[in-house]
Specification:
This protein is mostly helical and 175 residues long. It is built from six helices and no strands.
Length: 175
């Protein structure tokens, strides 16, 4: 690659990194606001006046028991759809980054790709370009990705909060 081509790839890499950060932070900023709103709604539902009102009316009790977790699920479900939409764009940016890293011989950034992909031949040349074959670059440790993805956590939150709300409301209003 010529120095000009390397410069273009570097600029493209920085732009893709910036978009990756944007989508990731936007997903979790919106999620934090909606999760907080659902928790505040839980507080309103557990207000003594609402509990007294519900204890005097079966229809109010059933509406709160069913409607409250469903409303929370709807709000968090919309967030999950938003997250999923951005996840696709996020993954596209990741692929752009990985392709540029391959071209520039930035193998040490590609350890996760090596763990989860069948791109062995591409990664072999990137590994050699980064100096792995000649002993120039030897990692101190071999990190293994662990834990759930952000999208998996968003799904757990989307399903878990309304479920917990239903249990709490059921124990307070129906037991």
């Amino acid at each position: 690659m010529t120095p000009e081509e390397i410069n273009v790839k570097t600029v493209e890499y920085q732009a893709a990194q910036e978009m990756l950060r944007h989508y990731d932070s936007l997903n979790w900023q919106i999620g934090a606001i909606l999760i907080a709103a659902v928790i505040v709604l839980t507080g309103f539902t557990l207000n003594k006046d609402i509990i007294d009102l519900a204890s005097s009316s079966n229809s109010t009790r059933i509406t709160i028991l069913i409607g409250f977790p469903l409303l929370s699920f709807f709000v968090l479900g919309v967030w999950l759809l938003w997250f999923r939409r951005h996840r696709n764009m996020y993954n596209y940016r990741n692929e752009v980054l990985h392709r540029i890293e391959l071209q520039l011989g930035m193998y040490h950034h590609l350890l996760n790709v090596e763990k989860y992909s069948n791109k062995g031949e591409c990664l072999k040349s990137a590994k050699e370009n980064a100096g792995y074959g000649e002993g120039k670059y030897v990692p101190f440790y071999n990190p293994k990705p662990v834990g759930p993805s952000g999208y998996t956590l968003a799904k757990v939150i989307t399903l878990g909060i309304p479920f917990c709300q239903f249990i709490i409301v059921y124990k307070i209003y129906c037991v």
